[in-house]
Amino acid sequence: MNDDIKKAVALSSGGIDSTTAMAIAASRGFAIHSLTFSYGQRHGHELLAAAAVARQMGVVRHLVIETDLRKIGGSALTDTLPVPKTGHTGTAIPVTYVPARNTIFLSYALAWAETLKAADIFIGVNAVDYSGYPDCRPEYIDAFNQVANLGSKAGVEGQIAFTIQTPLIHMTKAEIIRTGMALGVDYSLTSSCYDPSATGLACGLCDSCRIRKKGFAEAGLADPTRYV
Predict the structure, then answer these.
(1) Which pLDDT tens digit goes with each residue over 176-215?
(2) Three-state SS at 48
């Protein structure tokens, strides 16, 4: 690809937020290079969703990185701990938090962006309708943005000023969904459930399913998710 074309690396889980962030990046004229991780997550169905989203959006390349976080564990998504189904309450960080996940993902995204000579990395983190993960906060993103520019050859030599783009960070889930719909996102391709059935049906009870259903309801739109 011509180096003069504006390129972006977009983290893609196949869910509502990452898909909407990619659509926003595309609407801003970026050529999208989407990055997905097979990290041993129990909700592996999201890999199929991410691939479907990449095809539908016509990304330049969809790269899947394999890194088995089950060897570390510590999360209901990568260990034998049960996924909570009663709804997240209080201020405690839930057991579905995956230790250092966004730091790992953004590090890979930075490496690819540096290779592509892409200054922009899009991630669909959200600090409004979310489960309270520490690596979804603006403070964390600001800190990683500094790391990106201090810890890369391109950043230190002044070749690239990296920016971690978080277009959804202050939006409600309903606002995110409305934004995506206006950009032509097909949310029937996306998957949010932490504990789907073997055939990919969403459980409807985990935090992610609850937040998704609430978002569609508040947006006044039908949720295309197939639930158990």
Answers:
(1) 999 999 999 999 999 999 999 989 999 999 999 999 999 9
(2) helix
Residues 6+ apart with CB under 8 A from 120: 6, 7, 8, 9, 25, 30, 113, 162, 163, 165
How many whole angstroms separate alpha carbon 31 and alpha carbon 4?
A: 11
Under 8 Å between Cβ of 36 and 75: no
Residue 1's pLDDT is 55
Q: How many CA atoms lie within 13 A of 82 on its CB side?
A: 4
Bridge partners of residue 202, in order along the sequence: 227
> Token pair 């996924």 is at which residue?
83
Q: Is 154 helix (H, G, I), strand (E, B) or coil?
A: helix
**Side chain identity, residue 129:** D
Under DSSP, the state recorded for 78 is: T
Domains, the chain, in order of start with CATH, read: 7-219 (3.40.50.620)
Cα–Cα distance list, 2 to 31, 35, 88, 183 (Å): 11, 20, 46, 26
Residue written as token pair 């009870």: 205
Angle at 89 between CA 83 and CA 91, to 5 degrees: 105
The amino acid occupying position 50 is A
For residue 28, give both structure tokens.
Answer: 């801003």
Query: Counting every residue, how long is the chain?
Result: 228
pLDDT tens track for 113-129: 999 999 999 999 999 88
